[in-house]
Amino acid sequence: MHGFANPKRFLALARWLTPLCLASGLLICAGALGWGLFEVPPDQLMGQTVRILFLHVPFAWLGMAGWSTLALCSMIFLVWRHPLAALGARAAAAPGAVFTALCLITGSIWGRPTWGTWWVWDGRLTSMLVLFFLFCAYIALAGAAEREGVSPRIPAIFGLVGAVNLPIINRSVVWWNSLHQPPSITMGKSAIDPVFLVPLLISTLGFTLIFAGVVLARMRALLAHTQAEARLRRKAMEAA
């Protein structure tokens, strides 16, 4: 872990890993979504609307995985002061927010024919909406800290505090009465029929690779921006 905190080593790895993750993720997603949309039979109860499962579930997973990545990078920065950890947290914030928003949108589209309404204020939906607002707040806080020259410890602490929402999202359908169905996949077992489960897992893998590729690309861009600013400051000091 300490070795990859070196920017040169990280860039050498990310230079080939970024396109690999993006290309393989797009191919896997295309295959899984084609399978789910055209080959999987309609559900006995939900009919054709069940096909949004292959988008909604990966989006929900990656919204939570985005904040988990952000919180882990924040912890590494606070404990070990790794210079790339803060950049990793910032890089994960925007794609995490996008996937969370897509989760909310697809959930509303799925809820309209299933529940008869676009939105209900139950535990799962409300906690996911809170997660989206947390992403927006972190992006604003991290941007302000960079502009004002404030220590990145402040957004890192916020990233760790915000992780409290993750177990609430996970257990909300168990703790409170909810229109949302209970967990379908738990440790060692699944309530989803294999005809739906297999393309769902493949779709989740594909979107996860896309998420990883986007995070790596954003880290490379943020690192290039940081290095360019450092060179400009050094030249300004030499000129002065």
UniProtKB/TrEMBL annotation:
InterPro entries: Cyt_c_assembly (IPR002541), Cyt_c_biogenesis_CcmC (IPR003557), Cyt_c_biogenesis_CcsA/CcmC (IPR045062). Residues 43-180 form the Cytochrome c assembly protein domain. Belongs to the CcmC/CycZ/HelC family. It comes from the Bacteria. Keywords: Cell inner membrane, Cell membrane, Cytochrome c-type biogenesis, Membrane, Transmembrane, Transmembrane helix, Transport. GO terms for biological process: cytochrome complex assembly. The lineage of its organism: Bacteria, Pseudomonadati, Pseudomonadota, Alphaproteobacteria, Sphingomonadales. PANTHER family: CYTOCHROME B_B6 PROTEIN-RELATED (PTHR30071:SF1), HEME EXPORTER PROTEIN C (PTHR30071). Its main location: membrane. The gene is ccmC. It is a multi-pass membrane protein. The chain crosses the membrane at residues 12-38, 58-80, 92-111, 123-144, 156-176, 196-217. It is found in: Cell inner membrane; Membrane. Required for the export of heme to the periplasm for the biogenesis of c-type cytochromes. GO terms for molecular function: heme binding; heme transmembrane transporter activity. Coiled coil: none annotated. It comes from Qipengyuania algicida. This is Heme exporter protein C. One of its GO terms (cellular component) is plasma membrane.
